Amino acid sequence: MATILVIAPAYEGHVGRTSLELLGGARRIGEARGMEVVAALLGKGAGAAASQMWQYGVKRVYVADHPSILLGELEAFYLASLEACRAANPGVVLLLADSVGREVGPRLAHRLGGGIVTECIDVQAGQDGEVTFLRPVYGGKAIATYRLVNFPVVVTVKPHTMEVPAEMPVSGETIPLELSMDPEGLKTRVLEVVSEEVTGVKLEDAPVVVGGGRGIGGPEGFQLLGELARLLKGAVGASRPPADAGWVPPTWQIGQTGKTIRPDLYIAVGISGATQHIAGVSGAKVVVAINKDPEAPIFKVAHLGVVADYRKVIPPLIQKIKEIVGT
Length: 327
Ligand SMILES: Cc1cc2nc3c(=O)[nH]c(=O)nc-3n(C[C@H](O)[C@H](O)[C@H](O)COP(=O)(O)OP(=O)(O)OC[C@H]3O[C@@H](n4cnc5c(N)ncnc54)[C@H](O)[C@@H]3O)c2cc1C
What we know:
Blueprint: E1 3-9, H1 17-33, E2 36-42, H2 50-54, E3 60-64, H3 74-88, E4 90-96, H4 101-112, E5 115-120, E6 122-125, E7 131-137, E8 142-147, E9 153-157, E10 173-176, E11 208-212, H5 219-231, E12 235-238, H6 240-244, E13 265-269, H7 275-278, E14 286-291, H8 298-301, E15 304-307, H9 310-325
Parallel strand pairs: 1-2, 1-4, 2-3, 3-10, 4-9, 5-9, 11-12, 11-13, 13-14, 14-15
Antiparallel strand pairs: 6-7, 7-8
The chain binds flavin-adenine dinucleotide.
């Protein structure tokens, strides 16, 4: 029987939250089509992460624990993914649409002789067994729906766009993958990994994000947003113009060509609400917009809106929060 194969990096024995998000989509397809969900964990020390998969109902876990599969290493990751596909005979392969998955997904689809849906933001399955994949198109202005017709298909899913499913513990097994990979023969090699400097909570993981746009007017205004974010135990993000202008680091950019976030609360300050920005925040549970233009499109997606100059709103808000929670 064809399976649904979730391929996840597992460096040093840990699977990241975003890979767990893939399991929700996989489970929905499995239930609709009566297919088993299996996983392949790839990376140095990957075997120790198998229990994380069992916790989410995946019984069969293929493991490629190889010293050449390192963070950012494409070639080794691809060869291990191919080996996992040979072992698991998947009808559907799910991968993260991150820097590795974006390269590996199309190559896998080609080698499997299948189709591919890239940059997917949701996987839906009906009771009639129909499975659809949703993907933003035309610069995020529309959502295209792809129906699953033929197997195999490779699907890359944007991180932070789907919920981690509920736990469903099972007692599972690990199946080691035999890799005949010669480290010297690999076409690419990771020479150095430079970690992003983060003080406080990471933007992608923050429960509260304060996003600033061109309306902030310069780097100084972002200090004010930083103060608000700190009090709310959150992180600061930005639309593209502040990142382009160098007011904030490029890693703060949220949107179609930036990060995708799913905070409980997103406070958009001086941001107009272009579709390319909204593409990165559509998973936010509550959106509050502060903008001096009552016609700004951000108010169409905001749950709560404040029409005002942010300089008149944020300082008293900070003051009030300090009174409630202290400094
Ligand atoms: C292919 C492509 C990819 C893109 N990817 C991204 C992306 O990933 N992320 C992204 O953000 N954009 C992206 N963009 C750019 C996007 O189209 C918009 O240009 C951008 O999001 C606008 O940023 P903004 O809202 O900060 O600026 P603006 O559209 O200029 O809006 C500024 C807002 O601030 C308000 N304002 C001004 N002063 C104040 C004040 N004192 N107080 C309160 N409000 C004030 C104004 O009323 C206005 O609504 C992309 C564009 C393209 C073509």
